[in-house]
Write a sequence for this structure.
């Protein structure tokens, strides 16, 4: 559980770091454009400002048209166009015309200023709109950062709680382990105490039997030396028995430690197996998630292909507009070149005229009076020609003025006609709008406003929910893209050649399972063989004991004796308790506590001889 919480916390921290970097990048992009200002509000302000500047330009154009019309009306009617008051003399007309001219001369500069300001603001607006996507992404990232921060706090709390649980469990486990060790020690002491208690009881029974035997024998009592010798023999046997018991306990401790080691190894193997199963489940989940991401990627690719299919038509429109723009630019360039050529010709004519005057003055200073007279005559002819040319130019100017006047009147008539046409169109549209308004008012009278208000509120709520959902989906989409990148990196780095490694681990696990199964079968067969061997040896042992007893013991109370082995415990931890029984007329009875000391000694000697013959011959 702690490892799972750590993994989720690490993944969430990585996502938080990535989102922080994205937010810093978006903030840097936005700050280069508008600083710390609110971008949507700045866009609205710029749009209002551009609209206001365009209205100013339109107003300037309208003022120019009004001034032209006022001048035209003054020329046609010779009175003030505003109040229809006739002018008293030419000075008032000149004053009126000069005022109009000043106002008209003021308009182009102001109009150009407004146009430049509008163009600059449009450029800024374009930059703002280009940065609007970064602003929206920044807002989405901020929302994601809030959710990630909450997730981090929750996961850190879970980690703290889980760590506390782990520490408590570790402490409890250590305490239980200490208690188990103490219990094992106490169990060993209890077993020793119980063994000593049984030995004391056995010795007490032996003492009582010896006392009874001594009482029955009377004069046949043994000497102190015999008793001491028997006691020494018994002490030696007791030492041997204790050594055997100690060795058996040592073997039991070794076997117990071996069993504990095997249990630890088995537990480690189970933990490894659980970890492999967890990794396998994680792999399946990652494959499923990867498949979903692939499907989403295919959907995005289809959308992109659809957009690319629509792109040629848009490109064609853009190309046509570009061609029109280039044609217009070429026209303006041609006109500009034409005007430049005319300006160049005029300046060239002026230079030639100055050069001619210079040469003329120079010639006047250098030549004689006759030459001066000829030149003066030539000058007179030229002046006559110039005067004639001026008269021709005056007539041409008058004709041009008449043509311009006719053109202005024609334009005025055309504007009036356009205004009339526009007025009629607007009248028709107004009538249609009034009719539509009447129909809408009739429908509105029939329409339930409360229901519409409720529907409108519901639709606004749905719109807000959809906007929030869109933001969350965009955040999830960005998070999923980051997860795709991270998972691809993990697949490339951590899960590289995972199939091969999984195959090797699978083979190892299966090999260990088969080996464990074979070992279990071998252990069972070995246990069966040992038990069978043990039973056969016990039969041989009892057969030899019976023969030796019959040949040695001459009493009639016991036909023969045998050794019985009673098994205890399960098959895996089986132990044997051996006891000596005496048989009389087919009836079996435990020999312990029911026989004399001599019978015990004889039984011990016979059993040792039988054991030696059974287990030490052909070994």
């Amino acid at each position: 559980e702690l490892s799972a919480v750590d993994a989720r916390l690490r993944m969430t921290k990585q996502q938080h770091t990535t989102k922080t970097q994205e937010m810093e990048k978006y903030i840097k992009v936005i700050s280069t454009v508008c600083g710390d200002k609110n971008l949507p509000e700045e866009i609205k302000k710029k749009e209002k400002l551009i609209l206001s500047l365009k209205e100013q330009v339109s107003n300037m154009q309208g003022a120019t048209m009004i001034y032209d019309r006022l001048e035209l009306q003054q020329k046609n009617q010779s009175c003030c166009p505003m109040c229809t008051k006739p002018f008293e003399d030419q000075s008032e007309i000149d004053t009126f015309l000069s005022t109009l001219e000043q106002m008209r001369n003021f308009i182009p500069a102001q109009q150009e200023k407004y146009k430049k300001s509008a163009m600059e603001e449009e450029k800024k607006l374009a930059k703002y709109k280009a940065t609007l996507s970064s602003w929206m992404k920044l807002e989405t990232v901020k929302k994601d950062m809030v959710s990630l921060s909450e997730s981090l706090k929750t996961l850190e709390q879970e980690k703290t709680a889980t760590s506390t649980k782990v520490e408590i469990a570790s402490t409890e486990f250590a305490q239980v382990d200490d208690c188990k060790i103490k219990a094992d020690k106490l169990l060993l002491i209890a077993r020793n105490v119980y063994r000593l208690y049984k030995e004391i009881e056995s010795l007490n029974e032996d003492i009582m039997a010896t006392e009874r035997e001594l009482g029955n024998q009377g004069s046949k009592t043994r000497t102190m030396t015999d008793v001491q010798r028997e006691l020494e023999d018994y002490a030696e046997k007791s030492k041997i028995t204790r050594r055997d018991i100690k060795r058996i306990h040592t073997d039991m401790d070794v076997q117990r430690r071996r069993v504990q080691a095997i249990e630890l190894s088995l537990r480690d193997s189970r933990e490894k197996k659980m970890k492999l199963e967890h990794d396998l489940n994680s792999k399946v989940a990652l494959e499923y998630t990867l498949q979903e991401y692939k499907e989403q990627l295919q959907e995005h690719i289809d959308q992109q292909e659809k957009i690319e299919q629509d792109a040629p038509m848009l490109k064609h429109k853009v190309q046509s507009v570009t061609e029109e723009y280039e044609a217009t630019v070429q026209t303006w360039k041609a006109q500009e070149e034409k005007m430049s050529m005319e300006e160049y010709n005029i300046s060239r004519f002026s230079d030639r005229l100055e050069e001619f005057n210079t040469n003329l003055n120079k010639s006047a200073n250098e030549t004689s009076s006759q030459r001066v007279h000829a030149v003066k005559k030539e000058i007179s002819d030229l002046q006559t020609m110039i005067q004639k040319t001026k008269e021709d130019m005056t007539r041409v100017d008058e004709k041009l003025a008449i043509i311009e006047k006719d053109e202005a009147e024609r334009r005025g008539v055309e504007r009036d006609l356009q205004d009339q046409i526009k007025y009629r169109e607007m009248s028709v549209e107004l009538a249609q709008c009034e009719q539509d308004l009447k129909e809408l008012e009739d429908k509105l009278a029939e329409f339930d406003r409360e229901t519409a208000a409720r529907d409108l509120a519901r639709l606004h709520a749905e719109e807000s929910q959809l906007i929030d959902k869109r933001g969350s989906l965009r955040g999830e989409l960005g998070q999923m893209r980051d997860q795709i990148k991270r998972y691809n990196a993990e697949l490339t780095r951590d899960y590289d050649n995972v199939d091969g490694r999984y195959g090797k681990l699978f083979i190892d696990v299966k090999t260990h399972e088969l080996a464990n199964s074979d070992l279990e079968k071998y252990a069972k067969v070995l246990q069966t063989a040992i038990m069978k061997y043990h039973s056969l040896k016990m039969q041989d042992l009892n057969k030899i004991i019976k023969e030796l007893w019959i040949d040695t013991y001459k009493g009639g109370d016991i036909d023969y004796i045998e050794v019985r082995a009673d098994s205890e415990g399960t098959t895996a931890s089986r132990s044997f308790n051996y006891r000596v029984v005496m048989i009389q007329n087919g009836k079996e009875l435990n020999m312990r506590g029911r026989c004399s000391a001599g019978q015990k000694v004889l039984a011990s000697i016979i059993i040792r001889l039988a054991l030696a013959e059974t287990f030490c011959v052909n070994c």
Summary: The chain has eight helices and three strands.
